[in-house]
Amino acid sequence: xxxxxxxxxxxxxxxxxxxxxAAGGRRVVGPVARDGxxxxxxxxxxxxxxxxxxxxxxxxxxxxxxxxxxxxxxxxLFAWANGPQGLKPLLFxxxxxxWRSVRDESGSLRFEAVAPDAPxxxxxxxxxxxxxxxxxxxxxxxxxxxxxxxxxxxxxxxLVVAVDCSHPADTCFCVSTGDGPSVSAGFxxxxxxxxxxxxxRAATAAGREVLAxxxxxxxxxxxxxxxxxxxxxxxxxxxxxLPARNLRDALLDxxxxxRWDDVAARCLACGNCTSVCPSCFCHAEADTVxxxxxSSEHTREWDSCFTQRHSQMHGYKVRPHIRQRYRQWLVHKxxxxxxxxxxxxxxxxxxxxxxxxxxxxxxxxxxxxCTDEGSP
Length: 376
Description:
Blueprint: E1 7-10, H1 14-22, E2 27-34, E3 37-42, E4 53-58, E5 61-66, H2 88-91, E6 95-103, E7 109-113, E8 121-126, H3 128-142, H4 149-155, E9 158-163, H5 174-177, E10 189-194, E11 197-202, H6 205-211, H7 221-236, H8 248-252, H9 259-266, H10 272-276, E12 283-289, E13 295-302, E14 312-313, E15 316-317, H11 322-341, H12 351-354, H13 362-371
Helix pairs in contact: 9-11
């Protein structure tokens, strides 16, 4: 793993980095342990981060615990894999108004754009899988002739501080997608957490500006060796994998595979997988009319291709059965995204496995459908 480090930040000086991130009025968002999960929220100092927290993840299961007090990980702040939230909620809002209409005294309608809420934010602790998913969201909302102005406004205000993943969960498989566990692109600043501090590197002018007056210490050969060893151990810990990075042809050739019926018998179509997925972008739009009918607001909110409503057109449900909806999700995510974006839509975070109430494993299903291997 080749890393170009700007310097070394001792653990006790992480507060100085947080202060620099908050300069100019930025809201610093980082991981906190709350309500039984690691979630992203406003942080003001390192003491609020989840020191010594460990996570145990399995299909349909997520638990927080503590690292052994005698282990160096007991003093680490990022020695866990991921929680239910990625970067998506900060940029692609779960619900937001897009425009409104107002009827004036003469009875004429006036249409008004609603300015997006786009505060300056610094995200501390983004994982490689989520940074890769952010790049996919950027492709969808920002590339091409039709840029989404709400997403664009927030994206321009976000500074990303990534942290290499040292303790992948049992459900992680980012090595097989090529997106982790160490972050390689798409960040402003990246940290590699070691036992005594952080190797720090910057990739943008904004990131270099934050680091400019932190008085980082030189990176030693021992630091580099520890980071390299940590990276290899994190890769070796991952036991799950997709059968290939491009499954387009294999999936399209197996649209009538009996496995679709098998997984449909287990799937609840609850949409948990799409809610926690850092790259899914399905949404619905609706109008809310005021009680006096003088105004209405057009709102966008997250939706899921697992709902019957999402495929409904003029009262006709295009995909009325769970089998069809699960197939649509998997074939699009792992297959036809290649046609749209030049790669799979999966970054190997494993959240869809962890947060599925019945523990459906996307790596098992993809392997069974594409290679005729695997079992429920």
